[in-house]
């Protein structure tokens, strides 16, 4: 997406965030943790993350909202727009500043020799078999470990890429719907923004 702005807060997005939180509590509030994890698409992500002895982080965030009455974190508006859509769909999403990327981007499977700098600034090695995305400079996001520091969305971001990682078992139509939901959330913040590309790529 191009032609963005990224204020700290936006009232329409805040209302949307609260609406999504309420819908999630209504949908999942009567379930226990095992029932929650058995629902799609959490079941597919759970299988993927268990291969690496990890718990799906979006599942943990969802549990905190549904079971502990916490809120979707408020970051900058663009990041909150992305997170709100991510929690609604439970599909793993990464956001990047397009102007920080050196295109093209490539989706790959790690062999375990790769490393990159986490958004926290810490160097992290990859697990063999994990999915990751890179540009011509280096790795920009990894399923297990998240996005990098170099291409993170900042208050100055005016053009962005939102990428969704879907392991086997996730319906491509759900990915399409999720991308459209991100677009709709972002347009609340930046009504003049344009979508340059919105596509689902099968592996």
Explain what the structure shows.
It is built from six helices and eight strands; from the N terminus they run H-H-H-H-H-E-E-E-E-E-E-E-E-H. By secondary structure, the chain is an alpha+beta fold. The protein has a domain at 1-91 and 165-203. A four-stranded antiparallel sheet has the order 2-5-6-7, with no helix packed on it. Strands 1-8 form a two-stranded antiparallel ribbon. A two-stranded antiparallel ribbon has the order 3-4. A hairpin with a 5-residue loop joins strand 3 and strand 4 (123-125). The relative contact order is 0.21. The mean pLDDT is 97.
Please describe the topology of this protein:
Blueprint: H1 11-28, H2 33-37, H3 42-50, H4 57-68, H5 77-89, E1 92-97, E2 106-109, E3 115-117, E4 123-125, E5 131-134, E6 139-142, E7 146-147, E8 160-165, H6 172-189
Antiparallel strand pairs: 1-8, 2-5, 3-4, 5-6, 6-7
Keywords:
about 200 residues; two-stranded antiparallel ribbon; 6 helices; about 35% helix; globular; alpha+beta
Poorly predicted runs of 5 or more residues: none
Per DSSP E runs of 2 or more residues, the count of β-strands stands at 8
In the sheet with the most strands, the strands line up as: 2-5-6-7
Structural class: alpha+beta
Oligomer: single chain
Number of helices: 6
Determine the fraction of residues in helical runs and give it as a percent range.
25-40%
């Amino acid at each position: 997406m191009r032609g963005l702005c990224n204020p700290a807060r936006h009232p329409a997005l805040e209302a949307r965030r609260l609406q999504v939180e309420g819908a999630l509590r209504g949908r999942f509030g009567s379930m226990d943790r095992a029932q929650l994890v058995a629902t799609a698409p959490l079941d597919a992500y759970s299988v993927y993350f268990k291969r690496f002895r990890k718990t799906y982080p979006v599942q943990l965030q969802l549990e905190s909202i549904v079971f502990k009455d916490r809120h979707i974190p408020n970051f900058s508006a663009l990041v909150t727009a992305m997170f709100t859509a991510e929690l609604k769909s439970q599909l793993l999403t990464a956001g990047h500043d397009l102007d920080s990327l050196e295109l093209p981007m490539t989706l790959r499977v790690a062999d375990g020799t790769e490393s990159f700098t986490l958004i926290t600034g810490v160097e992290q090695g990859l697990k063999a078999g994990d999915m990751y995305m890179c540009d011509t400079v280096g790795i920009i996001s990894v399923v297990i470990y998240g996005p990098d520091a170099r291409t993170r969305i900042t208050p100055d971001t005016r053009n962005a890429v939102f990428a969704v990682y879907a392991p086997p078992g996730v319906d491509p139509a759900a990915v399409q719907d999720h991308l459209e939901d991100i677009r709709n959330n972002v347009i609340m913040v930046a009504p003049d923004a344009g979508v340059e590309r919105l596509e689902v790529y099968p592996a």
